Please model this.
Amino acid sequence: MFLNFYKLREQPFGVTPDPRYLYFSPSHREALASLFYGIETGRGFLSLVAEPGMGKTTLLFQLLQRWKGYVHSAFLFQTQCNSRELVRYLLDDLGLKSDGEDIVRMHSELNDFLYRETKAGRRVVVFIDEAQNLSDSVLETVRLLSDFEAPDRKLLQIILAGQPELSERLFRPGLEQLRQRIAIQTRLHAFRPDEVVRYIHHRLRVAGYEGPELFSTEALGLIANRSRGIPRLINNLCFNALSLGCAMRKRQIDAGLAHEAVEELSMTSPAPNLKAPQQTGRITAGVRSSIASGYKRMRGNFLTRRLFSAAAVLLAIGGLGIFVGTRTRSATLQPATTSLPANSAPAQHPETSFAPQLTASESPTSAETQQGATGESSIKSFIYVVQPRDTLRDLCVSMLGRYDRGVLSQIRELNPQLKNPEQLDAGQSIRLPISTTD
Model:
């Protein structure tokens, strides 16, 4: 492995959804703010849509981490199931015993559990990942779960996360009732080239890299172009480039090594003038909708060309079937105003007054720093309630992807009452910018 060669504490480009490595692009920050707001105000149904490899599962784990201790959650991955199996999976993940046969009895047990949790001041949130795989009948069962409610609130919050096919399916005539109940719909978008660079640097910092620039400017540009801004593809390219660099004893990944990594993953170029050199081998042609169907044959020269471990094979296979989706950005919901009447305010409950809060502030014209007529900052921001062991540095790195003088300047403007940014107290409310300016 290349960890010792490049002096890394751990693998920076792994495939597991570790929340520490989540880079908050603008669409990630807006999506997280929307989901936080939806849970905080008890909106019932929420949805998150993203292309494969965009990090939606990692974002959901981040959401769970920030609500830890304040909600009782269930995370369902088994979406190839019927209605009875789905309810049984739900009860099992919530820690409830069930024979899995009597659907009426399972609903009764779930209803009793929800009332107990609500009485104890805890929210119950169900995350359903890869929801595009659910059949129409199971989606109807999911809709019926939203009928568990008290006169003044929903007893169960449901977050549907899936690929773009989920949005398409929700617009079918038979699912109109479910679609109408989804109060907040948010989406993740591919990274811009500058965000790809920040994403790579962020993951290297989290993994403990402290040396000079590990990737040349040309290599970063090639990776941004060939990955199409999809985090999973970025990870695969960077992992393979570092493996090659270690084999060839190169301390920096240059454009040539990046081309080699592209060829090994058989990635085609979206731009004709950016094709890999012919001497590195012929890149599989005609692949526009997915990564090519496999890892090329292993090549034998250990010291000079291709050092690929079993992990590289798994990463390459894990990238199969990732489709190039539409790049048209849909309108992003404004979290602070979505689906709320103009004269209403977010519901606040005494028993959850110290739960994490994350709501986006409205920006009259842009996310740039401006001063309104009232003298208050109009930086687009969200409110976060400090948790035990939180530090400002950790919050900025995990939520904003950076911690520097510019970020501190925005935080001071948003929090004039914050005398010492390095001293945060649990339960304290602070504002963090949704986007940062260099």
Notes: DSSP finds 14 helices and nine strands in the chain. The chain has three domains: 26-187, 191-318, 360-433. Residues 24 and 400 are 5 Å apart (CA to CA).
